[in-house]
Structure formats: C-alpha cells, structure tokens
Design goal:
Oligomer: heterodimer
CATH topology of the largest domain in chain A: Aspartate Aminotransferase, domain 2
Number of helices of chain A: 17
Radius of gyration of chain A: 22 Å
Strand order of the largest sheet of chain A: 1-9-8-7-4-2-3
Largest sheet of chain B: 5 strands, parallel
Number of strands of chain B: 7
Number of helices of chain B: 5
Number of strands of chain A: 14
CATH superfamily of chain B: NAD(P)-binding Rossmann-like Domain
Helix content of chain B: 25-40%
CATH superfamily of the largest domain in chain A: Type I PLP-dependent aspartate aminotransferase-like (Major domain)
Distance between the termini of chain B: 9 Å
Structural class of chain B: alpha/beta
Shape of chain A: globular
Strand content of chain B: 5-15%
Number of domains of chain A: 2
Mean pLDDT of chain B: 93
Number of domains of chain B: 1
Order of helices and strands of chain B: HEHEEEEHEHEH
Mean pLDDT of chain A: 95
Structural class of chain A: alpha/beta
CATH architecture of chain B: 3-Layer(aba) Sandwich
CATH class of chain B: Alpha Beta
Chain lengths: 429, 180
C-alpha cells in the first residue's frame, strides 16, 4: 500500500479512503451495518465508550461503521481532519451552528445562497436566537461591515445555488481570521473534485450529500468536515469546545481531541442530543456514488459548458449565467477556485419572462421538472414558481431567482440529446 | 527526523516495539486527557507506569504511582510526557540517566521542546513531539475511523482484531518491525 511519504491522488481517495475490508468478515465493499446498537465487551468498555475514553460504536444515532466510512471518505477528499454524517444538508447546518452559537449571537452569511438555507437562517435559526446578518459576496467590504462583537462565524457557498456565483473564499477567509471566527463553506455544488475550500482558508465544510457526492438522486444526506485549522481555545467564545462539558464529566473537548475536536463536538453534543442521524443504507448509497465522483463531475462540467454555450446563442435566451463561459462576471474567480469546470448548475433568463419559463419546463421530455440538483439525470426548474417561491420579490432577485430565470442541473446523458431536448422546449408553442 | 511530519511506519514501529510506558504528569482525574490516554493504552496491552510526585504511593487504575522516573524499579521502553513544553527538559535529562536507557521519548499533543529532542536523539533515542499515542494508535489500528476521523491511511487488507474484545483493534502484523 502507499508508503507514508506518498499522498494518494483524488481518484484513489474517492474509492479507498475510509474503506478498508471489513475487519470481521473480510467483505471488500463496505457492509451496510443496519443495526441500531452495538454490544459492549463488558461494563468497563461501555463506561469508556460513553465517557469518550475509547473509540468505538454505541448507538447509530451517535455513530455507525457504514456512516463512518462515508465520514472519513469526505474528510479525506476535502483535506480535513474528520467528518460527521447527518440526515441532510440542512441538518449539517443546524449541527454546526449549534456547536458555535448561543442565543443572542450573530453570524454573517452571504446573501447569495441556496434558497432553503436563506429560509433556514431567516426563520428557524432566528427562533433559536441565532441571528443572521447578510452580506454581499460581490462587495467584500459588506462582510467586514457585518462583523460585530457578537459574530461567531461566517457562512458562504463556494459555488452558490442557483445563480452560478463563485465566492472569493480566500478574501472572505481573511476577514474571518481578522474577526477571530471560523469560516464555514457549503461546498455542495463544487464538491472537493472542483474546489477544496480548506486550501483557501475555510475552517469547516458542510455538504448536502444529496447532490453530486451521492450523485444519483437516490438519498438525502448531509456531512460536516472539520478542517482542523481553527484554534477553539484562544478565547472563551466557543464554550462547547474550550470549557469543561457537564454532559461528559467535565471533559474539555479541544484539549482532549486536538485538531478534530470540532467534529467530535458536533457528534457528541449536536448529533447525540438533536438527533438527525443518517441511515446506514443512505450512507452506503452515497459511498458508492463517491467512488465515481471525479469521473462524473468532469462529465457534468463538460456537458454543462456545451449546454451553456449553446443557450447563449439562442434567440429566446436573454442571458446565461455560467461562470464557465468566458466573459461571465465570475469567470476569473472560476478559473481560480474551480479550474476543472464551473459545476453543472446554472441559470439563464428567457426573454419571454415568467410565462416562457413555465412553458419551457412544461415541454421538455428528457429533463425532469423537479426540485433537486446533482443527479445523473438532467433536471430543470423554474425557481420563481417553486424553490424560491417563499422569498419576497426583492429576495428572489437577490438570490438570482427572478421571474424569467430557469435553473438547469445538467446530467450525464449525451450532450446532443440534452441540447435537443432544450430546443424542443424552447420552440414549443 | 522531521518533527513536523512523521512517517506512519516510524510511529507504527514505536508503538509495535515498546511494551512498558512511563507516563510523566498523569492526572488522577477521570476527565483529563492524560487519564484517557493512560487508560486506553493500558487496555491495548501496554504495561503502563504512572509518574506524578503529588500522587506517589497511590495508584491510578491499579498501577502504582511513582514520584519520578528514577524511582521506577524496572526498565522503561518509552517515556510519555504530559508536561508543558518548558518543563520537558529536566524530564528528558532524568530519562537519559536511566539504566537501561528508554528507547523512545514521546511528548504529548501541543508539547514540543527542540532542545530536549536533540539531546535524546544524540543519545540514540527515538523522539516524537506534539502527538498523542492514543490518537496515533487509534489512527494506525483504524479504531479512530469509527469516529469519522481521517486516519490518512489506505489499505486493501483488513484491520486485525486485538483479541481482547470486539471493538479493540491491533496495529497489524504488517510492518511489525516498521522503521524509519
């Protein structure tokens, strides 16, 4: 096997990281450990497990060997120290902020985010007393202005859904450093194949596994990666990590677990107590999906560039927002942060406005009209009438989901067939 | 030795070779990292000897505590140091006077003392700094993978059970004599 000096490449990690043959049976593919619980060797072993004194499995709400393979796999691909799998991308965000925030605290978030995240931050999180302060990724000074003494973290997406916005991760990580808070990056649309935010100063990564990591549209899941980069004990800002925890007989997590303490805090304080565990079966499907991640992502990007180029020449199309196109506002940032391709999700505008959008989604035959992204299948949606419906008109435009906007998630079919289907939809009466 | 980046086989070689470990600065409190590491290594079959002047004569996890290294009435293979970096040098100097000399000086996570490391290496000892033997054992045995931790190891061979419980793994037969 690779010697200690050799760092395996991305494709090798996609297949092997975290997945040694099963220690008991020798099964080569990771088994689905479909069990709620794990027997203890004896009373002392049980006590050591519950007290975090040893590594091991207790109960699938806290950890499961199938989920653990997925956790290590994604942590390795992102270049982080540890991972934690949870029930959805939304659950990942709840667990991360739960480890950082107390009621009355603030966090700064990019206003160009997935609409579901905007809703979660604006409403559910406000009910917890976690107050979002919005900033504009196109105006870096707005992030500096948004930081206050109550700020506990900054949250951005590497490639923002749905508008094809590329965020300047490195510049915002400097603002986070200066503020003494961690930078959280949702890397769902890029995946670590296209962009590794930890290389640019991110401290924590969150994923919706549901999208390109799983890649086949069959499982909801989320994942948190600890970058191992943030010093939690520098001040008293993060008591979950730096102070004795009453939940565990006064253990100080950062001192005990070092550079993977954040992932442990998310597991033993967040997941244990809030409960959104991932099913081992879903973990198995996502692990299988990740084995082909580099092949799929490259084909997704190649197909998407072809579709975006074609659309940009169509008379029905007013504009195409894909950072992979030369001349796009974010093309330069895409070259820096996502050089192998700008992802497979983008939006374009129809000259015919809202009605033309409804007509297009109603007349395609290969594209599926649904709310997900990151599937082998090509997907289409009209955000103004669906995913972004709950936002105000101003918020819709801000989030890149105005009335004329159509979003595509380009799949792995033959690009000629994808283009022919769009032509059918655009020409329909 | 590059103390910023140890080859896995260097660490594996140490943990596969040493049998008796004296832990200097162990706390008797159950919630302290030193107690965790002591208990974990004891359960993995190491002969663990606690060293703490404030606890001398008492016992921690049924192991008699000694005030200082020179009080230990048997040879020690490795000295694991749980003291702040600035207090490490006298411990290493004392360790080097032991007969026979230990083979390994290990300084815990966040602890580094370059002068002490040079001194020990000049005497032919192996040195590890800013690492935890519990975490390294967990990493190289794959136990830590159960916690979703990036073990930074790949293998097409299955991890071996230690034989003393379902959830206790060994460091594996391969590279048993692993060296740098």
């Amino acid at each position: 096997m690779p010697d200690a000096e050799r760092t395996p490449g991305f494709a090798t990690l996609s297949i092997h990281a975290g997945a040694k043959p099963d220690p008991t049976t020798g099964a080569r593919v990771t088994p689905i450990y479909q069990t709620t619980s794990f027997v203890f060797d004896d009373v002392d072993h049980a006590a050591a497990l519950f007290g975090l004194q040893t590594f091991g499995n207790i109960y699938t709400r806290i950890g499961n060997p199938t989920c653990a393979v997925l956790e290590e796999r994604v942590a390795a691909l992102e270049g982080g120290t540890a991972g934690l799998a949870v029930a959805s991308g939304h659950a990942a965000q709840v667990i991360v902020l739960h480890a950082l925030m107390t009621p009355g605290d603030e966090f700064v978030a990019s206003k160009k985010l997935y609409g579901g995240s905007i809703n979660q931050f604006n409403h559910s999180f406000k009910n917890f007393g976690w107050n979002v302060v919005w900033a504009d990724p196109d105006d870096l000074a707005s992030f500096e202005k948004a930081v206050s003494s109550k700020t506990k973290c900054i949250f951005i997406e590497s490639i923002a859904n749905p508008g094809g916005v590329i965020t300047d991760i490195e510049a915002i990580s400097k603002i986070a450093r200066k503020a003494g808070v961690p930078l959280i990056v949702d890397n769902t649309l890029a995946t670590p194949y296209l962009c590794k935010p930890i290389d640019y100063g991110a401290d924590i990564i969150v994923h919706s596994l549901t999208k390109f990591l799983g890649g086949h549209g069959n499982s909801i899941g989320g994942l948190i990666v600890d970058g191992g980069t943030f010093n939690w004990s520098r001040d008293k800002k993060y008591p979950m990590l730096s102070e004795p925890r009453p939940e565990y007989q006064g253990i100080i997590l950062h001192e005990t677990f070092g550079n993977f303490a954040f992932a442990i805090a998310c597991r033993v304080l967040g997941l244990r107590d809030l409960g959104p565990a991932l099913s081992p079966f879903n973990a198995f499907l996502v692990i299988t999906g990740i084995e082909t991640l580099p092949l799929r992502m490259q084909r997704h990007c190649d197909n998407t560039l072809a579709v975006a180029e074609w659309l940009s020449k169509r008379p029905e199309v007013a504009w195409v927002s894909y950072p992979g196109l030369p001349g796009d506002k974010y093309h330069k940032l895409a070259k820096k942060y996502s050089p192998k391709g700008a992802g497979a999700v983008f939006t374009f505008g129809l000259k015919g406005g809202y009605d033309a959008g409804v007509k297009l989604v109603s007349n395609v035959k290969l594209f599926s009209h649904l709310a997900n992204i990151g599937d082998t299948r090509s997907l289409i949606i009209h955000p103004a009438s669906t995913t972004h419906r709950q936002l105000s008109d101003a918020q819709k435009v801000q989030a890149g989901a105005g009335p004329d906007v159509v979003r595509l998630s380009v799949g792995l079919e033959d690009p000629e067939d994808i283009i022919a289907d769009l032509e059918l939809g655009l020409k329909a009466k | 030795m590059n103390h910023d980046n140890y080859p896995d086989n260097y660490i594996r070689g140490i943990l596969n070779t040493v049998k008796t470990i004296a832990m200097v600065g162990i706390s008797p409190k159950e919630n302290r990292p030193s107690y965790f590491a002591f208990k974990y290594l004891l359960e993995r079959g190491y002969h663990m000897i606690p060293v703490n002047p404030g606890q001398a004569g008492k016992s921690i996890l049924n192991q008699t505590v000694y005030a200082r290294l020179s009080d230990i009435p048997e040879p020690v293979d490795m000295v694991d140091i749980f003291r702040a970096s600035e207090h490490v040098l006298p411990v290493v100097e004392e360790a080097l006077k032991l007969q026979p000399k230990p083979q390994v000086i290990w300084m815990q996570l966040t602890i580094r003392n370059e002068e002490a490391a040079r001194l020990a290496e000049a005497e032919g000892l192996k040195v590890v700094m800013n690492r935890c033997p519990k975490i390294e054992y967990g990493r190289l045995s794959s136990e830590i993978s159960w916690m979703g931790v990036n073990s930074r190891t790949l293998s097409s061979r299955r991890a071996q059970n230690l034989g003393t419980g379902v959830q206790r793994m060994s460091l594996g037969a391969t590279n048993k004599k692993g060296d740098n």
